[in-house]
TrEMBL record:
GO terms for molecular function: carbohydrate derivative binding; DNA binding; DNA-binding transcription factor activity. Keywords: DNA-binding, Transcription, Transcription regulation. Residues 1-73 form the HTH rpiR-type domain. This is HTH-type transcriptional regulator GlvR. Residues 104-239 form the SIS domain. Pfam families: HTH_6 (PF01418), SIS (PF01380). It comes from Clostridium vincentii.
């Protein structure tokens, strides 16, 4: 309801009103417009203008939407069902995924570098993946902040492994475009093969679990990604590094 685009267009009085509402949201849903004006020290005109900026016809609609949002946030049921993970592990036992994992190992062996890229929880897994591959004997790097200034030349002829649940992160997609110009091979691990990142990758593995969010925060399980990172790493070590140790 209060997204960035709306908040940045609020004037000082409206921001004062916004701060009061966010601190007293449980009370505001029962207040009249006059009561809110007195408590927040603004005019009823300011409140109506505020409601209009939130695309509400008036104060009554604003209160209804505010109450609905409050109820939605209070009634979030976090799924703790392990059946999706078990189903994913069962789906791994097929020739297509097996062939893809072997192909990724071949690409890693032929590449100058491995670069893992992602943001948020995927960014955290990128760091883990880089450490994991280094421990196995293959130097790897990670980019967990798509806004970080990057000299893409160092990624020339690299295998770039992109981790993204939604596969729709615009900043990651821009990074991929820059990396492709440096003759990098793009491998992606996403939740769906229909996502933009999956479609522009040279090779994609998708795991298809139910996406979960609390507000704007993505809490979709990352267990399939973690499993695939380790599985690819172990395959690569057995295929190309075990005999050298």
């Amino acid at each position: 309801m209060f997204n960035y685009e709306i908040i940045k267009n609020l004037n000082e009085l409206e921001l004062t009103l916004y701060r009061y509402i966010m601190k007293n949201i449980d009370k505001v849903i029962y207040m009249t417009i006059r009561e809110l004006a007195d408590e927040a020290h603004v005019s009823t005109t300011t409140i109506l203008r505020f409601c209009k900026k939130l695309n509400c016809e008036g104060y009554s609609e604003f209160k209804v939407r505010l109450k609905m949002e409050l109820q939605n946030n209070q009634s979030i049921d976090i799924n703790n069902d392990t059946s999706a993970i078990i189903d994913f592990l069962k789906k791994l036992d097929n020739d297509e995924i097996d062939d893809k994992m072997n192909s990724i190992c071949d690409l890693i062996n032929e590449a100058n570098n491995i670069v893992f890229i992602g943001s948020g929880t995927s960014g955290i897994l990128c760091k883990y993946a880089a450490i994991y591959f280094c421990a196995l004997g293959k130097i790897a790097m990670y980019i967990d902040d798509p806004y970080f200034p990057t000299n893409y030349k160092f990624c020339e002829s690299s295998v770039v492994i992109v981790l993204s649940v939604s596969g729709e992160n615009a900043d990651i997609i821009n990074n991929i475009s820059n990396l492709k110009r440096e003759n990098s091979t793009i491998v992606s691990i996403t939740n769906s093969s229909n996502s933009t990142i999956a479609k522009i990758s040279d090779l994609n593995i998708s795991y298809y679990v139910k996406e979960e969010k609390i507000g704007v925060s993505d809490i979709t399980t990352q267990i399939p990604v973690l499993f695939m990172i380790e599985s690819i790493g172990k395959r690569f070590h057995s295929k190309y590094l075990a005999d050298k140790n």
